[in-house]
Amino acid sequence: MSTVLRIGTRDSELAVWQATLVQNQLKELGVQSELVYLKSEGDIDTITPLYALGVQGVFTKVLDAALLNNRIDIAVHSMKDVPTQMAQGLQQAAVLKRANYKDIFVYKEESTPAALGYNNGKWNGDNDDNSLDFTIATGSVRRIAQWLHRYPSHKVENLRGNVNTRLRKVKEHNWKGAIFAAAGLERIGLRPATSIDLDWMLPAPAQGAIMIACREGDEFALESCRSLDDESTAICTCVERDFLSALMGGCSTPISALAELNNGEIYFKGNIVSPDGKYKAVVEKRLLKEQWHEAGRLAAASILANGGQAIINSIRKTGLTTNGND
Ligand SMILES: NCc1[nH]cc(CCC(=O)O)c1CC(=O)O
């Protein structure tokens, strides 16, 4: 076995930044490593909307294969892109401390935040812009659904590509703006001043967290990564992903979730929104930290009993299954 840990990563700027973060943290622990760059299907086809690409894990499959073929020892992923059911033979080695989990709106005209109901750093209750010529962009069905729920008259256009490509497309197109994960832009120093936090939008399960995957039982990899694991983030992201998988078996869907752990208490919020934005079911729960193993399932049971089941049934009928958990 080599003593230099081979770290697999996609080659986008964000992915390489994340893999380098892991490399630096390992170095501080005295673990030598090298980066191995791989291209994922999700990076090669940047036109098709994510929810239409058809298979799960478009961003992770290539790295999964490289792990299983013993070409790399660990893979660094944006955790929200990792299917809830990991590939057979692989396991989670660590979850790094979560960064900003929020979705943000990047706009172009100074008048746009106020038109959306955002004034002096605050969102008005539900003061919506109802103009019909308001078009925004995102490739995420979860973001589309939550946006249309709040702004039923708006139009949403598909936006794909890595964050650099997407920022460029926002400049080129005649859209009011586009939605991004704060973490993706902040990590590589690209968050523009012309952006606002979408405090009313719940994030994708595990958004803002970085997961390290390895071969099942690979003691060298597991031991090397053990102290990179942040217990609180690992618990919260596990609860969010359990909620997702209990609802849809892991397909990427208009399902959002956020768990926060404070003073021994898990505060969980989740929602399911129909892709047209018309119907929304929500769940909010406070549980003890000790209940983290069952928290996601309990929250899923609550939301199903409170309108969630009908929305899921309608999504199943349209055959809308997507990639990653975005
Ligand atoms: N689906 C793509 C993806 N996967 C992870 C991030 C950002 C980093 C993160 O959420 O951890 C992004 C970009 C985005 O959603 O804007």
From TrEMBL:
GO biological process assignments: heme biosynthetic process
GO cellular component: cytoplasm
InterPro entries xref list: HemC, Porphobilin_deaminase_cofac_BS, Porphobilin_deaminase_N, Porphobilinogen_deaminase_C, Porphobilinogen_deaminase_C_sf
Reactions accelerated catalytically: 4 porphobilinogen + H2O = hydroxymethylbilane + 4 NH4(+)
Domain (Porphobilinogen deaminase N-terminal) ranges: 5-220
Cofactor(s) for this UniProt protein: dipyrromethane
EC nos: 2.5.1.61
Signal peptide start-end: none
Protein's pathway: Porphyrin-containing compound metabolism; protoporphyrin-IX biosynthesis; coproporphyrinogen-III from 5-aminolevulinate: step 2/4
GO molecular function, one term: hydroxymethylbilane synthase activity
CDD domains with a match to the protein in the record: PBP2_PBGD_2
Keywords: Porphyrin biosynthesis, Transferase
Similarity remark: Belongs to the HMBS family.
Subunit details: Monomer.
Designated name of the protein: Hydroxymethylbilane synthase
Organism name: Flavisolibacter ginsengisoli DSM 18119
